[in-house]
Design brief:
This protein is 17% helix and 18% strand. The protein contains five helices and twelve strands. It has helices at 26-34, 85-96, 246-249, 271-288, 293-299, and strands at residues 5-11, 44-49, 71-75, 100-104, 124-125, 161-163, 165-166, 186-188, 195-196, 205-212, 219-226, 235-238. The chain has an eight-stranded mixed beta sheet with strand order 2-1-3-4-12-11-10-7, with helices on both faces. A two-stranded antiparallel ribbon has the order 5-9. Strand 10 (205-212) and strand 11 (219-226) form a beta hairpin. The two termini are 17 Å apart.
């Protein structure tokens, strides 16, 4: 019997009530905690926390390479000061030791403290740091919230969902045994997603899914998967942490006061989209732990 996958859900801000603190990812936490394996035993053991005050190394993140966690889900919700050098170095060693890493951020420069992470940090493009390589992409996409600059891809309202395009060949992370074609087709939408891409000279990574702006029609990357190698464990760069936030799964859960866009309710009325999103989360938990996702898909 396999031991539960030990997962750390972690934000890059202290517990500020009117912000994207870890309590705003409670539905994700509860879903992961409720998953069971083929024997009916808990699949995951989940810890969820915010960082300590910025300016000094976080006691957990700066030593995570010495911990017993199997994977880290990092929600970079800061404006630049969320990770210290010591935090980034330890997180990089964590993955170098073969463990799994999910790094998500949001629009413009939100979460740009991840730039110093080895490998997967280079897959994230921001406004002021490491902009997208194509200058034609340096334009505003979300035109509703005028103070948010690029990158800000508009995939839809919070509370709605987007239909994704799967890159060939389909990555196993996008497997859905309950779907007619065996694939995941939906993720939560968000009015201003960030930008991710394959870092230059990176041979272990590829884009696995793309979305389309509901404003401009521009296609943009949603997720970049890094396969495990001798140099590091599996990793994923996600275009926005809103794919995992309570407010995007159910707007009734609330949001910080600075969120001004009117939410949608399409996700609440689509069992297929809800199942798709949760299947993606389950797949991530298993894949990032280095376990056989193919076996899990077959047995469900």
């Amino acid at each position: 019997m396999a031991a539960p996958i030990r997962i750390l859900l972690q934000t890059t801000i202290p517990p500020i009530d009117d912000d994207w603190h870890i309590g705003r990812f409670s539905m994700l936490r509860d879903y992961l905690s409720g998953l069971t394996d083929a024997d009916g035993q808990p699949l995951c053991a989940v810890t969820a926390r915010d960082r300590t005050e910025p300016g000094s190394p976080d006691p957990v993140l700066s030593t995570i390479d010495q911990s017993d966690y199997d994977e880290l889900w990092l929600f970079a919700v800061d404006t630049g000061d969320g990770l210290t050098d010591a935090d980034c170095e330890a997180i990089s060693r964590f993955r170098e030791n073969g463990r799994g890493l999910l790094v998500s951020r949001d629009h413009m420069d939100l979460g740009c403290s991840v730039c110093s992470l080895t490998g997967v940090g280079n897959a994230h493009f921001f406004h002021s740091k490491r902009p997208e390589p194509d200058p034609a992409r340096h334009v505003v996409d979300d035109r509703e919230t005028s103070y948010i600059l690029w990158p800000n891809y508009h995939s839809g309202a919070n509370g709605d969902f987007q239909t994704i395009t799967i890159a060939d060949p389909p990555h196993i992370l996008l497997s859905d045994p309950s779907a007619a074609d065996g694939l995941i087709h939906y993720l939560p939408s968000h009015p201003h997603e960030g930008a991710v891409g394959v870092p230059e000279s990176e041979t272990s990574a590829r884009v696995i899914a793309t979305g389309v702006s509901q404003v401009s029609g521009n296609r943009f990357n949603l997720a970049v998967a890094f396969e495990p190698t001798a140099d590091g464990g599996p990793a994923l760069a996600q275009s926005t942490f809103h794919h995992f936030a309570d407010y995007n799964w159910d707007p009734a859960m609330g949001c910080p006061s600075f969120v001004s866009e009117k939410p949608g309710d399409a996700l609440a009325h689509s069992p297929d989209a809800q199942r798709s999103i949760r299947q993606y989360v389950r797949n991530l938990a298993i894949w990032l732990a280095g376990r056989s996702l193919e076996r899990d898909v077959r047995t469900r």
